[in-house]
Each structure stands twice: as C-alpha cells, then as structure tokens.
Specification:
Largest sheet: 7 strands, antiparallel
CATH topology of the largest domain: Glutamine Phosphoribosylpyrophosphate, subunit 1, domain 1
Number of helices: 18
Shape: globular
Distance between the termini: 26 Å
Strand order of the largest sheet: 3-2-4-1-10-9-11
Strand content: 15-25%
CATH superfamily of the largest domain: Aminohydrolase, N-terminal nucleophile (Ntn) domain
Length: 509
Amino acid sequence: MCGLVGILGKDPVNQALYDGLTVIQHRGQDAAGIMTSDGNRVYLRKDNGLVNDVFRTRHMVQLRGGMGVGHVRYPTAGSDSRAEAQPFYVNSPFGIALGHNGNLTNAEELRKELFVQDLRQLNTSSDSEILLNIFAHELRAALGESSLRASPQDLFTAASGVFRRCKGAYAVIVMVVGVGLMAFRDPCGIRPLVYGTKKEASGLSHIFASESVALDVLSYRLVGDIQPGEAVFVDLDSKVHRAVCAERTDNFPCIFEYVYLARPDSIIDEIPVYQTRIHMGQRLGQKLKNDWPEHDIDVVIPVPDTSRTAALEMAKVLKLPYREGFVKNRYIGRTFIMPGQAKRKKSVRQKLNAISSEFNGKNVLLVDDSIVRGTTSQKIIELAREAGASKVYFASAAPPVRYPNVYGIDMPSSTELIGNNRSTEEICREIGADKLIYQELGDLINAVRQCNREITEFDTSCFDGRYVTGDITPDYLRLVDHTRNDQAKLGPDNDLDISEVTEIQEKRA
C-alpha cells in the first residue's frame, strides 16, 4: 500500500504535491518523495520519514516546474534504504520518473529479463524500479532509432508493453520530461487511481492520485477513475489522450481498500468509502441480531478510527448505546503498517487509552474493521478488561483474513495471520474475547456493491485465497512467506536457504 499524486499545470506544482501527499499519508508512513520538472531538468527530494519530516523549505524551493510526481511508501522487505524511496528516475529516453502503488508478482522473472534481454542494470530490490525500466525500454522501442519526439501513440505502445510483461497489481504515474504526464492501472484494476482537473488563471491543471480525497483538498474536480488496463496521457499543451492498452481487462478492485486502507471521504471506482462502511455495520449488526438474539451486550464501542462508522450502525441495528471508550494518540502511526510484531505491540499501548467509566462493570462489544495478525485486537481486549469490563465481545466488519495478500498490502505472510488455519472459536481464544463475530464475505461484497452495481467482483484474496491475476502458485506463496514476513523485515537470518529461493524463482521462470 502506497500513495501517489501527479500534477501537470502551468503554475509550480511543488506545494500542491506536498499538500496532496499529506492527505494520503495514511497510505504510507515509511518514506516520501517528490520529483518535478520545468521541461528541461528534473528536481528530486526523497527520504525515509513522514511527508512533513522529509520536506523543508529549502527542499521545496528547489522543486521547480509545472509537472511532478509525489509518493508515500509503506515498509516492505528490502525497503529500509532511502534509495528505495520513490519516485524512481531513469534518464533515457527523455528522462522518466515513476511512482508505483502495488506489487509485481513476476518481479524476479522481469529482473532477469531486464538484465539479459534489455541490457538494463537495476540498483535496488524494488519492483517499482523494475516497472520503470520496463516502461523506459518499451518506450525506447516504440520511438524507433530516429524519433526525437514522443507521440501519444508511442506512450500507449509503451504502456501496452508494460501490460503484456508485468503481472500483479499496479497503479502507476509516469512523468516524461518535455513530453507530459501519464497514468495507468493494471488490467484487473486492483489498486485505485483517479483523475481530476481544475481551471486556473494560467490554464487547465490535471491531477492523478490514489484517492479522490487528494483532489478534494486541492479543489480539483473528480473526472473519474483510470479504468483497468487504461492509460491516460496529458501532454504539455494540456490535451488529454486516453486508450485501453491491455489486451484483456477485468474489474476486480481490492475490497480491503473499503474495509481499511482508504480514507472514508474518498470515492474509489464510483463507490463512496464512507457509505460502504455504513452498509458493513448494518449487515454485521443484523447478523449478530439473527445469530444471537438473546445477547447481553450493554454498549457498543469502536476501535478508533476506521471502525467508527460500522460500530455506530451496529449500535443502531441492535438498539444499544454507542460510546467512545478509547482515546487515540494522534501522533502514533497506523499499527497495521508498522514492521515487526514487537513494535506493533508496543505502539498499541502508546496509541490507545481506555476511558474506565465506559467499561467498568459492563458487557462491551468492541468493533474493529478487521483482524489481521490479532496482536492489536488482543491488546485492545486487555485494555478493556483492565478498565473494568465484565465481558468483552469483539466484532470484525470484515471476514477472517486467512490468506496472504500479494497485491501490495503489508500482510503477505500466512504465518502472521491469526485467521490462517484457525476456526472462529480458536481465534476468539487467541485474542482473549468472550465471543467473536465476523462479517460474512458475501455480506461484505454486497455492502460494497450496493454503492455500484456495475462492479460484480472484487479482489477478496486475503479472505478466500482466490488470486484474480491467475498466476499465483504455492511455490510463489512460499517465497513470499519467507521474504516478506516480519523476521525478514527486521533483518535476522531467514530459515529459507538461498538455493531454495533460486529454485522457486527458476520454476516460475
């Protein structure tokens, strides 16, 4: 999960890119970067840290030009260096900067192709650098030997090459120096990407972003989503060119965006995120009412922040009081995207404090958006008991997360998922609840579809193990499990021998 913003206009875009990144900071707190261009040169600032830590006044004034790309990154294995921060840049053809949200599932095959066939050297372990070099190579091939200018068709041909070669999930913004700004989305539309415009005194300004909330804050009008397999190119004359460049497209938006990742005030694939969370709460409340009509719940309390909407709707359905039982420290990052169990456990205590009067002597229903590793849920239940709760029931607005996510969300290792190979009763005992209520997958899908009936399916792989790209094998999942779990992120010796890694990669190739 990362966040992207790209802007092209006549006025300087440095401040707008900065403001846009702060709005989507929830999508990545590990590193931030901005690259701009004045048509001739590029200007870059990127480093590890939050947006307001990475950029100072001295950096902002150096980011010149009316076109640029910004990125915020969440941590994965091999991304602890500032060199891994985005955007990435190559100087040929023209000079290309790229920001990427997602994960390439055939990254190792592509890495070998780039070196052996395309004669390109990679300097990092990031699949985003792979994607950039694939695009650059395909654009060079589309241009021919004598062309000094890139047409929209050249760029679309390059995007077609990316779609043909790259598998997995990717939302991409590309800045081509002296040419324009381009955005495209993988053929399954897994990761989100939206487009908007704004009329300014100097002319029309264009923006691409991971979420529509960035457009709202910057006063852009939402034109719509980049469609699966589509590329949208805006040239320096502000002309917009659109084309579907993938041979085959489907529409499988990631349903976890609506459960947790996206801000509630965003609209993704014409679906208001806030409204989906209302529906999730209504359906989960009705399920609890039907399955447990004689419950003894006294009060409904959300786990802040993403579960508030669902918790309020559950309280309405159950006709119970809704109370805020936890006070959140706003200066602690999202525990879901923190690397390492120890760091997540410690941060829960720093992040939340219970209001004893809302728990003392009561049977409380705690509502959260999901249960991933279970660490946070366990600690929150402990907090509720310490605050005097008689019984602690727990409800999840999402089904059990049982399978690794390979499309760019930081929960890839099955060994880290509390729902993997456990029943609801076993999970309940693990987290220490008196009762555990999960949303049904069908109810979750219908809660989201209720806002846009044209979308018939979603990527629900973390719940049902169905990988929509069709290329995920058990060998690949095993490789992911050993290279992206918490142990790998924190750096101790991994128990998978390097020869095993090579063997798995060769099988996929």
